[in-house]
Amino acid sequence: MPTAISDQRSVRLRTVDGLTALGIPAPPSQFPLPFPAGQLPRLRPRGHVEARAAILNIVQARVFDMPEELAMRWLLDAHVLDHLSPDEWGFIACGRGERARYADQLESLYTVSWLLGLVDHLDPAVPCSEELPELLPDLRRPETFGAWRDRQLTPTRDPAVIAEMLDLYYCLDWICDQARRAGQAPPRGVDDNLVWHRRWALEWAVVFADERPVHWDEVRL
Asked: In which domain of life is the source organism classified (predicted)?
């Protein structure tokens, strides 16, 4: 993938076009890009993204009272325990933490599903689709992690598309933050909680040369 600075500028031009379509003024021209100078991101290995989708799916199931024993057994059989954050372990295995905090991560799960090509859009004006559970491991059967991976063979998103989406949500998050600081509501039609959780997943998903990929709970927005 190219890494020339001109490609970064084209990313921001696409972001400005997207904000204009939403009726939202763009950030100042000097507002930085969310990438190291001269670099564009690449996506983590697909297996890591699939593991993240599986974990967030279990988190949502626990929000809706899936028994902790069944949840942990599914994760153990899926061999994804190494991808759990300490907070997720506490919530899934012991019920520690605020349920609402984890319920809000549905939009992060939707974003990870977009990265895997399972959903066809990440429109900031449209919340998570009600059809999302059908695209994820069926925990009622229960469907194994391996069976789900074999069922969903969609291609992952192109890094250039991910770069543009990350910049869009990076700018939207800044715009929402500026509105909060001014005591104002976010732009009409924009849910700042949705924006924050989608940006979280996008920031986690990308990696850059010479940088260690951060863990889920290490993402800093």
From this structure: Bacteria
- pTM over the 0.90 mark: yes
Where does residue 32 fall: left (phi above 0), alpha (psi -120 to 50 degrees), or beta otherwise? beta
> 42: helix, coil or strand?
strand
- Per cent of the chain over pLDDT 70 is 97
**8 A C-beta contact, residue 94 and residue 86:** no
pLDDT of residue 5: 47
What does the DSSP 8-state code read for residue 32? Answer: P
Nearest to 108 by CA among 186, 185, 205: 205
Q: What domain range includes position 14?
A: 5-42+158-218
Contact between 216 and 204 (Cβ < 8 Å): yes
H/E element, 207: strand 206-207
Residues 131 and 69 in one domain: yes
On average, the pLDDT of the chain sits at 93
Domain boundary among 122, 151, 180: 151
Helices (H) and strands (E) in the chain, counts: 10, 2
Which of 115, 134, 151 is the C-terminal boundary of a domain? 151
